[in-house]
Amino acid sequence: MNDFGTVIAPNTVRIERLLPGPIERVWAYLTESEKRGSWLASGDMDLRIGGQVELVFHNNALTDNDVAPPPKYEKYGGRMSFGGHILECDPPRVLAYTWAEGSGESEVRFELTPRGDEVHLVLTHSRLGSRDGMVSVSGGWHTHLGILADRLSGRTPPGFWATHGPLEAEYERRIPAA
């Protein structure tokens, strides 16, 4: 399994991870505010089709021993939130919701499949509006999923911004220009 995400359509990126299970535990880290807040963003989720999704990010506080966000992302370091709606919910296997409603809404889909003691996670982020958006989202998801893997494994994750910068630069190189 390639650690880096791949472009699977002109506006869609897919990233796969093998995570420590069981599947119900990984599902909880996707859906429960406190657990999700330890790797991505806290906030309530009404786990039914059409239910509200609130994502409250605070990337500067996500990990210890970090660096300041780069100027490009300075405004995203503090507390920031946005909403969406559940598109699909089939516990504990599929969760899909809109992402950043009102600002070029895209869609995020998580698919979980048990593999022995591990869980295969497939994250697909679609309807991205531009190549720059794909690069940014890919670097962000890669960094956040690394933190998730570390949290599930009981490891201390490296700094969010310190990790994100080099990963975004690599996605800049990997994602072809239109």
Automatic annotation (TrEMBL):
Start and end residues of each Activator of Hsp90 ATPase homologue 1/2-like C-terminal domain: 22-152
Pfam families: AHSA1 (PF08327)
InterPro entries: ASHA1/2-like_C (IPR013538), START-like_dom_sf (IPR023393)
CDD domains assigned to the protein according to its UniProt record, in alphabetical order: SRPBCC_CalC_Aha1-like_6 (cd08899)
Gene3D superfamilies, A to Z: 3.30.530.20
Family designation: Belongs to the AHA1 family.
Protein name (database record): SRPBCC family protein
Lineage of origin: Bacteria, Pseudomonadati, Pseudomonadota, Gammaproteobacteria, Lysobacterales
